[in-house]
Specification:
Elements lengths: L10 E4 L7 H5 L5 E6 L3 H4 L2 H11 L3 E5 L8 H14 L4 E5 L1 H15 L5 H5 L10 E5 L11 E6 L4 E6 L7 E4 L9 H19 L7 H23 L4 H14 L13 H13 L3 H16 L4 H12 L8 H18 L16 H8 L13 H10 L2
Parallel strand pairs: 1-8, 2-3, 2-4, 4-5, 5-8
Antiparallel strand pairs: 6-7
Helix pairs in contact: 4-5, 7-8, 7-9, 7-11, 8-9, 8-12, 10-11, 10-14, 11-13, 11-15, 12-13, 14-15
């Protein structure tokens, strides 16, 4: 186990009617905010009206900026930065899923950064004293509600990069599972795939003597696997929605990274897909992660056999270790497919004509991944396996 420091400043307010705490939390930071959200979904479920009512009752002034799309766009982020500077806004409330929260984080960082906010994604600048943000989560998936990272898509060249800083963790996040009841089935399962990917990116490490965090990750995966079909068959199942929502937060708040080195190659490989083809991130991960696994499993076959046994209950006593490892990968793929996710690029009508371009962009700053360092040809081969 490696040395580590774990700290997470985000206050989680979880449960029914949790948004009733919104006013008192915001007033700790500001009386004038940017209310940032996507489209009409928060209006359809009544959350938009409830939030506005609370802000009015607490005499909190706000300016709205809607229009966040999946894979949040740099152009809207720049618009938000200008609004915050012009209106002297000192807090951002993100109401929505990971894209809204990521967009809010990038705006928060850009307001106090003297240059182009895209520089922060390129590593040409540092996040310094961003304005604080809070969130009301409506889509369990990205884990951005308590993470230090934001992913941004630049429409010029369709580049998808991230910016990271401990200062970007939200000050508070309100998690009410009732706000997820109306999510369509596909959006629900795409989010679940994202959660599972965050867990598996951490699980597959070459670090030894990490049994505690192994067990925590395995338990989280098993809980998600158990409750996924329950929320898909009964979207208003509060208890299963709550389990999925909390799993998504804990999966990406960095607790499970403690003492180990996470991989993140699959995320970087998928980012090229969703940047070019604008597909949901979780759908891309459902395709890429099993392909990545098949490409790298021999670099630590014991870890993959452990994954098969502990998560999918495949008994290694009756299988050779390699077959056990491969059966675990196939079980994951079958789980995704059974619940309506694409498991090949062909499922999304994505051809192979841009594989080389994506592989080159993915590795433009060097090899990706930590479980196994992957160069351009490796990434190209993973796209081939994902066909």
């Amino acid at each position: 186990m490696k040395n580590f420091t774990f700290e997470n400043q985000t206050k989680i307010i979880f449960g029914k009617n949790a948004e009733e705490k919104l006013g008192e939390e915001i007033k700790k930071y500001s009386q004038k905010i940017l209310l940032h959200y996507g489209g009409g979904s928060i209006k359809k479920i009544g959350l938009y009206d409830r939030v506005k009512k609370i802000l009015k009752e607490e005499n909190i002034d706000y300016i709205e900026l809607s229009g966040v799309k999946p894979n949040p766009r740099l152009s809207l982020i720049k618009e938000g930065i200008e609004i915050c500077r012009k209106e002297n806004i000192s807090f951002i409330l993100a109401v929505g899923g990971g894209s809204v929260i990521d967009s809010s984080k990038a705006i928060a960082a850009g307001v106090t950064y003297p240059g182009d906010v895209w520089d922060l994604c390129l590593g040409k600048g540092e996040v310094t004293e961003p304005i604080p943000i809070g969130t009301i989560l409506t889509i369990p998936a990205a884990g951005s509600e308590s993470s230090p990272a934001a992913v941004v898509t630049n429409e010029e060249g369709w580049l998808k990069l991230d910016v990271q800083s401990e200062e970007l963790r939200p000050k508070f996040s309100i998690l009410n599972p009732e706000n997820t009841f109306s999510l369509p089935k596909y959006q629900t399962i795409v989010g679940i795939a994202d959660i599972m990917a965050h867990l598996m990116e951490r699980y597959f490490t070459q670090e030894t003597h990490v049994d505690l965090s192994d067990r925590l990750i395995e338990g989280n995966l098993q809980s998600v696997i158990k409750h996924a079909p329950l929320v898909l068959s009964n979207p208003s199942d509060y208890n299963s929605r709550a389990e999925i929502m909390w799993a998504g937060t804990v999966a990406h708040n960095d607790l499970f990274t403690s003492g180990r080195v996470a991989d993140w190659a699959s995320h970087k490989i998928e980012h090229e897909l969703s940047a070019l083809y604008d597909i949901p991130h979780g759908a891309g991960l459902a395709i890429i992660m099993p392909a990545w696994m098949k490409y790298v499993y021999r670099d630590n076959i014991n870890k993959f056999a452990q994954f098969a046994h502990r998560v999918w209950h495949i008994d290694p006593d009756f299988e050779g270790i390699e077959k056990t490892a491969l059966d675990g990968i196939e079980q994951l793929k079958s789980f995704f497919k059974e619940h309506g996710l694409p498991v090949t690029l062909q499922d999304l009508n994505i051809g192979d004509n841009r594989f080389r371009e994506m592989a080159r962009k993915c590795t433009s700053n060097g090899a990706v991944g930590n479980f196994k360092k992957l160069n351009e040809n490796d990434v190209f081969n993973i796209y081939q396996l994902a066909k």
